[in-house]
TrEMBL record:
Keywords for this protein: ATP-binding, Cytoplasm, Ligase, Magnesium, Metal-binding, Nucleotide-binding, Phosphoprotein
Name of the encoding gene: glnA
Family to which this protein belongs: Belongs to the glutamine synthetase family.
Domain of life: Bacteria
GO BP terms, alphabetized: glutamine biosynthetic process; nitrogen utilization
Domain GS beta-grasp: 39-123
Protein name: Glutamine synthetase
Length: 501
């Protein structure tokens, strides 16, 4: 919910310094080889992202690490990765990106982790379904248009930390059960493990924003996550408890260029999950795990720059924004139904995108107003701080694809000078019905978003950033593996509604 984005600083490579934060990064294969000796590394871990957005990995020993690894790559079975190859074309390659190397703070054995690009060994070129390749192409296309040299992203990922989670479904039963000592529903529970009685201080529904300990029981875990992220080279600005009861959190990273920030999102999720597990708890980026309370979003701050000039700033424009900024917003709002297929890509996402839970369902532009899909933060009047916050995405998204899709929508908005409509600086949820009916809203289901993507994809295909193949594969995967299985299974609430009919 908060973001204190500052002006762009040093790139991720070389040295990054802000206050006491300083990490020196390798930039070449030779630098990585030096790191192996400097840090007494014993294992090298190679990470890459499957199509839905989950990190995959395997590890190699030091004798297998040599300069040719970064050019020739190393083989793996692409047919075992979700959304990748068929079994008759399974051989694929990984090429590590040396600029992503970090000493892995999760591992007890001295381990150097690198994020890899996926390569088709037959064609000897980047694999078209590699999400990271799509993000890179989006950045390259932006430069080719001449609109800007750089796109910065600053996502705010919210997530829950629970004490435990149990779930299951078979042919004759189904359930889930969330346990959290912070949950408002635990006020009557005997917490004997802590000496008997109940410790109280439970966050009431929708009242979890900013309480201090002991109500906020996760302060130390979030601090550990933040410091562990910095060990991995990801700069953290702020952390806090979020609105929902039962352990909703937010840790904000400093913004970065598009692909680098998507890399950072993957590191963020990895470290959040592993630090929580270290404490006997579980972290989830599922958008809506709790009924009747706020869900987790991934509000995405974004701006376009020519070198060190912010193209979204105009001292005389509405909310200090330029025409280019407003056209960019116009592109986001115009293409939002299709964007949701990548930005809110789970069936669970649409249990978040409903009125009443600070959810940005209304496709309108505003300043300060969190009920609009596109918001201009007004914390600072500095030219370097001017940006748009697109509030519809959630953390179940594959960041590489979601960020790339948003940039492509914004570029289309600028190229076609798409009018975002007049700003709505009132609480949109409280508008009278005759006004509210004229405001477009995000789709109400993943199925509707995929249908919108089928009809509105031309903006994604420009410059071959997205290909027909990856769009079709995404739609087919989501329908076969997510929408249809959910449709087929009885829902517990259906028993309440219909069992006695």
């Amino acid at each position: 919910m908060s973001s204190t984005q500052r002006a762009p600083g040093a790139p991720f490579g070389a040295s990054v310094e802000a206050g006491s934060f300083r990490v020196t990064r390798p930039q070449s294969a030779g630098d990585v080889m030096g790191w192996l000796r400097q840090h007494d590394v014993q294992i090298v871990d190679l990470k890459f992202t499957d199509l839905p957005g989950l990190w995959q990995h395997f590890s190699i020993t030091l004798p297998e690490v040599h300069p040719d690894l970064f050019s020739a790559g190393i083989g793996f079975d692409g047919s075992s990765i979700r959304g990748f190859q068929e079994i008759h074309e399974s051989d694929m390659l990984l090429r590590p990106d040396p600029s992503t190397a970090f000493i892995d703070p999760v591992c007890g054995t001295p381990t150097l982790s690198m994020i890899c690009d996926v390569v088709d060994p037959v064609l000897q070129r980047p694999y078209s379904r590699d999400p990271r390749y799509v993000a890179k192409k989006a950045e390259n296309y932006l430069r080719q248009t001449g609109i800007a040299t750089t796109c910065y992203f600053g996502p705010e990922l919210e997530f829950f930390i629970f004490d435990s989670i149990r779930f299951g479904q078979d042919q004759h039963s189904g359930f889930y059960c969330v346990e959290s000592a912070e949950g408002d529903w635990t006020t009557g529970r005997d917490e004997g493990a802590y000496g008997g009685g109940n410790l109280g201080y439970k966050a009431r529904y929708k009242e979890g924003y900013f309480p201090v300990p002991p109500q906020d029981t996760l302060q130390e875990i979030r601090s550990e996550i933040a410091l562990t992220l910095q060990q991995a080279g990801v700069q953290v600005e702020v952390h806090h408890h979020e609105v929902a009861t039962a352990g909703q959190n937010e840790i904000d990273m400093r913004f970065a260029t598009l692909t680098r920030m998507a890399d950072n999102v993957m590191i963020y999720k990895y470290i959040c999950k592993n630090v929580a597990r270290r404490h006997g708890k579980v972290a989830t980026f599922m958008p809506k795990p709790l009924f009747a309370d706020n869900a987790s979003g991934m509000h995405c701050h974004q701006s376009l720059w020519n070198d060190d000039v912010n193209l979204f700033y105009d001292a005389h424009g509405w909310a200090l924004t330029s025409e280019a900024c407003r056209w960019y917003i116009g592109g986001l709002l115009q293409h939002a139904p299709a964007l949701m297929a990548f930005c809110a890509p789970s069936t669970n996402s649409y249990k978040r995108l409903v009125p009443g839970y600070e959810a940005p369902v209304n496709l309108a532009m505003s300043q300060r107003n969190r009920s609009a899909a596109a918001r201009i933060p007004m914390y600072s009047d500095s030219p370097k701080a001017r940006r748009v916050e697109f509030r519809c995405p959630d953390p179940s998204a594959n960041a590489y694809l979601a960020f790339a899709a948003m940039l492509m929508a914004g570029i289309d908005g600028i190229e076609n000078k798409i009018d975002p409509g007049p700003p709505l600086d009132r609480n949109i949820y409280d508008l009278p019905p005759e006004e509210a009916k004229n405001i477009r809203q995000v789709p109400g289901s993943l199925e509707a978003s995929l249908a919108a993507l089928e009809d509105d994809r031309a903006f994604l295909l420009k410059g071959e950033v997205f290909t027909e193949d990856i769009v079709e594969t995404w739609i087919d995967y989501k329908r076969k593996h997510e929408i249809d299985p959910v449709k087929l299974r009885p829902h517990p609430w259906e028993f309440y509604l219909y069992f006695d009919i």
